[in-house]
Design a protein that fits this description.
Oligomer: single chain
Helix content: 40-55%
Strand order of the largest sheet: 3-4-9-6-8-7
Number of strands: 19
Structural class: alpha+beta
Distance between the termini: 63 Å
Radius of gyration: 33 Å
Shape: elongated
């Protein structure tokens, strides 16, 4: 019977070959597109969930003096928190740094090295290939990838690594497997942080990432309550009272007060909007938008498949009449039609899996970042979409299976009956297709316009052909830095250069300073860029009043240049030039407003 079933199915497809190809390819492309979008959404959602007990790991950030909310926090947080809370299983401090590594006569620039302690591997589980965790001040742990990169082998225990301009020597004590899932807390090199720990009592600092792993049966609310107790018993007496606050509630309401920011590890990537997180975060709204797009594409492909199948099925009315006349039972006909439809949708699913691999290559080319979650390492996804294709096949086969097989064969063969019972249903599907298609087209047009706006928006400064060179700290003094800059000036491709600490649009360096004028009652915290006399000209900042820095004027060491918003904030926008700032600084120029960062 199965052989006869397959024979009939293939004959039906071959008689309508072009229709079959269109139907199969259409469904396959829809499933493939939806699958790739789904994998992207899943990858964004899955950040840090691959760590063991990730649902019990939390990070504590901080804000102070109204200068921003930071993913890092004071070293002291994990020193005093256990006194207020017994729900901590373990905790670890991490500082992420950009370092220069030297091995024999080779140098490596590593932008993401973790300075941490032995507890790190208790909070964030890694499989040790060999050796042990960090214990001594000169210990360093590498991933297999880093060991191969530095030494050409994973057998790296006891090997020497020198770090930084001072070439401090560390010895490899352990090699771990790398992380093969999306993670914000991810590094290839782990160094003992002993020399970075200062046991500072100051709460107004932001130096370490503080991670806490809670015991079972403790959660977010318990940890937040403990931080509130730290605020009451430690932070307020040591920081709030010296600032003149007599009441804890008044201190907490002040924009200049210290505040803790608690995030579950699984929420950091999508929900944290703090500055200086380990990696740039995702956008939770985009997850919902792309999920909706994925579902819409999938529904459109299914509706199109069902519509085409039901439209062509009416041509098989006479076939049904003849087969019923020859003695075929209605049950077998129903099985035949449903089976054919499921077989076609299954073929489409197989084609979709192959197309999705091609689309994933295109996705990697466009974004520059491959998806760590692919089709084949996530079998649940394949099973989910396979089940969907079977459901689509069953739905598309319902009309011919139950409507056509209900005909009286004599009336059908005499031509007294037409198979038009599904017209209304098909009309509804067509209207749905066009409605959703128009919505997607309009959304695509809006997105295209937004991208065009972003690409062509005037930022207020010139970012074209400007390159920032880091690691100036490697020069021993200003004379060496100036010599290097003079050498750069001799290059034919260099028009101008400047020394600076940070540039608009970058959060690698962010300096906040507090400014006070006689025109405003309270001091204001303002993002500040440090640069020399050529910095303004290099970035093409436009002066509306005053002048730039002059290296020949000694008084310019106390000079400030504001943008229009800063001048207005300080109440000196009507007459800014010469205005006194704080006690010793004064304004020499005002530039037009410019975009200095991105909205969180």
């Amino acid at each position: 019977m199965l052989r006869n079933f397959l024979t009939v199915a293939f004959r039906s497809m071959s008689r309508q070959l072009s229709y079959s190809i269109i139907n199969i390819v259409g469904l396959a492309i829809g499933i493939a597109c939806s699958l790739v979008i789904f994998l992207f959404v899943y990858g964004e959602w899955s950040y840090d969930r691959g760590y063991k007990d990730s649902d019990r790991i939390y990070k504590v950030g901080i804000s102070f003096f109204n200068i921003g909310n930071f993913g890092v926090g004071p070293e002291r947080t994990l020193a005093v928190l256990p006194d207020q809370f017994d729900g901590i299983e373990t905790s670890t401090r991490v500082r992420r740094q950009d370092v220069l590594i030297q091995i024999d006569d080779k140098s490596f620039h590593e932008p993401a090295v973790f300075y941490t302690d032995s507890n790190f591997f208790k909070v964030f589980h890694h499989d040790f290939v060999s050796g042990r965790s960090i214990e001594a001040p000169t210990d360093i742990v590498l991933t297999e990838n880093a060991a191969n990169k530095f030494f050409g082998t994973t057998d790296a225990l006891g090997r020497s690594i020198k770090i930084g301009p001072e070439r401090k020597e560390f010895l490899v004590t352990g090699v771990v497997k790398g992380i093969d899932f999306n993670a914000t807390v991810k590094a290839e090199i782990f160094v003992a942080n002993n020399e970075l720990l200062k046991n500072s009592p100051v709460w107004s600092s932001a130096s370490f990432f503080s991670f806490i792993k809670l015991k079972e049966n403790f959660g977010y609310g318990d940890l937040q309550a403990a931080l509130d107790r730290v605020m009451e018993k430690n932070v307020f007496p040591e920081s709030g009272k010296p600032m003149g606050f007599k009441d804890l509630e008044d201190y907490k309401k002040s924009p200049n007060s210290i505040k803790f920011h608690l995030h579950a590890l699984q929420d950091i990537y999508l929900k944290s909007k703090l500055n200086f997180e380990m990696t740039p975060g995702g956008n939770e709204a985009n997850i919902y938008i792309f999920s909706a797009i994925s579902v819409f594409i999938l529904i459109l492909a299914a509706v199109n498949f069902i519509n085409l199948t039901t439209a062509r099925a009416s041509r098989r009315a006479k076939e049904v009449g003849i087969r019923k006349t020859m003695g075929t039972s209605r049950k077998r006909l129903i099985f035949q039609f449903l089976g054919e439809s499921v077989m076609i949708s299954t073929v489409a699913m197989i084609l979709a899996l192959m197309l999705s691999e091609v689309f994933l290559v295109a996705f990697t080319y466009v974004t520059g970042a491959p998806l760590l979650t692919t089709i084949w390492n996530n079998p649940t996804t394949v099973l989910l979409f396979t089940g969907f294709s079977v459901i689509v096949g069953i739905c598309s086969g319902l009309y011919p299976a139950f409507y056509l097989t209900s005909f009286n064969p004599v009336k059908v063969l005499k031509g007294n009956m037409t198979a038009s019972g599904g017209a209304s249903f098909r009309n509804i599907l067509v209207v749905f297709q066009f409605t959703v298609s128009m919505i997607l087209i309009v959304c695509a047009f809006v997105v295209q316009q937004q991208l065009h706006f972003i690409q062509n928006k005037e930022l207020g400064f010139d970012q074209n052909n400007v390159i920032t060179l880091d690691h100036i700290y490697l020069f021993k003094d200003k004379m060496q830095a100036d010599t290097y800059r003079n050498e750069l000036a001799q290059q034919s491709g260099v028009i101008k250069s400047a020394h600076h600490m940070g540039e608009p649009g970058s959060r690698r360096f962010m300096t906040f300073s507090t400014y006070q004028t006689a025109q405003v009652p309270d001091a204001a915290s303002v993002n500040t860029y440090l640069g020399d006399e050529d910095y303004m000209d290099l970035l093409g900042l436009k002066f509306v009043q005053g002048r730039g820095f002059d290296k020949d004027l000694k008084s310019d060491t106390s000079a400030l240049i504001l943008n229009e918003s800063a001048a207005k904030l300080l109440g000196i926008d009507d007459k800014p030039i010469g205005a006194k700032i704080n006690e010793h600084d004064y304004v020499i120029g005002v530039v037009s407003d410019f975009h200095w960062g991105v909205a969180s």
